[in-house]
Amino acid sequence: MKKSFSGMAVLASALAVSGAAMAQAPVQAPARTQAPDARPHHAQMVEPVSKADFVQRRVERLRAADANSDGQVTAEEMRTYVQARRAERRAARFDRLDANNDGVLDREEFNTPRARGERGEGMGGRHGGGRNHRDANMRGMARGGESRFPIVIADVERRANEAFARMDANSDGVLTQDERRAAMRANRGDMRQRHEQRRARTPAASPSAPASE
Fold it and tell me: Is this model's pTM higher than 0.70 or not?
């Protein structure tokens, strides 16, 4: 009980210091950087989606990142795009919390339920997760090393068309949620099978010979 009380006391003290610092030094608005693709978030696919929409969702951010419109995305273009998207999200989050639009977050605004929710959820909560899934993929591409670039948008578009054809079980040009789920199950099965095949091809490590005296 003493140890628990001590931990609570330390936490309370830290919160008090944080609150005092917040009251003395209001948070200034972050610098605004216009991202190449500042459109509202598209919800995850839960309704039937056409082939055109399916493909578009896989290439739209690459096209936005293609600064010189040459049909391919370089590592530098990808980094610039990811940084712009990050700056846009920071600015939008600040605007949501800045209730009086004065460009400064005071203590009252910082402690609103909305602000507490934003701080607590992070990338995996209501303002993250599915909404930023494609942006997370883009960040992964940006960290993937120079060897992955340039990314040819036409190749990505072709693979998206091929993926849609595999998933569209009844070939009606519309992808339903059931078809997507079936494709995901099949993909997991294929991955397990490939993993087992790799394990079968990998020779078992021979026991090390005892050291000679």
Answer: no
